[in-house]
Amino acid sequence: xxxxxxxxxxxxxxxxxxxxxxxxxxxxxACDACEPPESGVVKRLFQLHHTMMRVGDQMAxxxxxxxxxxxxxxxxxxxxxxxxxxELSEELRISPQNIARMVASMHRDGLVERFHDPEGGxxxxxxxxxxxxxxxxxxxxxxxxxxxxxxxxxxxxxxxGLEHDLDDLIENLTRFEHGLGxxxx
Length: 185
Fold this sequence. Notes:
By secondary structure, the protein is mainly alpha-helical. It has helices at residues 26-32, 39-60, 67-77, 85-92, 96-108, 130-150, 156-179, and strands at 112-116, 124-128. It is globular.
């Protein structure tokens, strides 16, 4: 886990997001003037991702996790069969290299252990240690604290629609990635 700086770094306020160019500050309007309107969706998805990671880091710090470790602990914990790095990479859509790096760090910290399945070939499988399982159990409480404020104003129908739209975007981007010759998460 990274130690937070002794003194929090100041954060500049983010400009208000609006679709009306007349109500944007001039630096934002000038920047967005060169972009197609669809780029606003991409920009907001990046902002959402980074804000979620920052909030997750703040929430999980007390249990020795980061947002990325939180995802990994939950990903390993919900698998019926202990996963390999490759399987976890595909499930979480994180590159195998990043998964392997996080697993190595979490192994050193006693959260995850690697083992070889005698019937499973050469790939190492992953499972949570008792400490890792305790951390995962704590993430359920963190998740419950997070979901209320995060989904405030979204009724079940709106959430289902949003989830469907996000699934479509993920599918589109995955198809595009495969067309580029990629395919690894």
